[in-house]
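Justification of computing resources. Each target in the renewal requires a structure prediction run like the one illustrated here; the chain below, 320 residues long, is used simply to show the kind of job we budget for.
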Amino acid sequence: MPISKNIFMKQPMMRKVLYSLIPVIFGAIYFFGWRTIILMSVVVLFGFLTELIFKRKQKKPVTEAVIVSAILFTLTLPVSTPFWVAIIGIIFGIAFAKEVFGGFGHNVFNPALAGRTFLYVCFPEYLTVRWNVAADTFPGGFLQYMTPAVDTMSSSTPLTILRQTGEALPLQQLFWGNVSGSMGETSVFLILIGAVILLYTKAADWRLMVSPIIGFVGLSSILTLMGVANDPGPLFGLLSGGILFVAIFFATEPITAPKNKEAKIIYGLFIGIITLLIRVYGIFVGGAMFAVLIMNTFAPIIDIGFKNLNSRKRKQVKAA
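Resulting structure tokens:
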């Protein structure tokens, strides 16, 4: 029996997110080579097949959201990530962070980040030390399968360099993105273009996008004034480590985020705060992915809390 007249569930909102990712994808190719697209295609295929297995039993179409999850997942990886590692990650993310909860609209955790975190814990070498040099002159990676692997610490990621050598890369370099790192997280400029597209097409709530940045910058400013050694400062921290990428493309994911306006702000603020706390006091250089998954857990509670609070306020107004 056929699954459905259409193999994909039509989700216009997901297509808007895909449009916003186009600049980031082209940037990833330029900085790291065409293996970006090949790896992304493999991940999309296995993400699709994983969801298809579940949907066949339900006789439902595959969601277009799985393509978005697969692409975002790929962009959080280094370009040299082995295909088999990436395949394991996307299968875990779609199967255990989405489908076991009932599929799209019912998942508690962001599938892309869940898959990435699974790889980070199980196969840390591929995600923490195997980086590639970022191209800095045209045509860059457009004429390469993959840019060369780094061979010195001076070519590692900005946060790793800062933590191990105390040297901070120029802010201009961080802004444009010609630094080693995960494929989609290096260029602040291209990430901001994606943010503009999301806001213009109304595919993301500005509260979820801005509040993590405010929480991160606010706490970083306080720690800087206190002289905390491991805090690189609000501007450097904001331009490195993927916090902007996570704030714009993951914190804004509507299914795992709160629905109440006030709850969205609290949710986002804590994502930014937890990200910085992990960076400064934890053993991980990054932290944004853990912050989002932690807050995914608390999103329903925050929503219920503000719903009850607003309900009490309305009753008090009526009683008055």
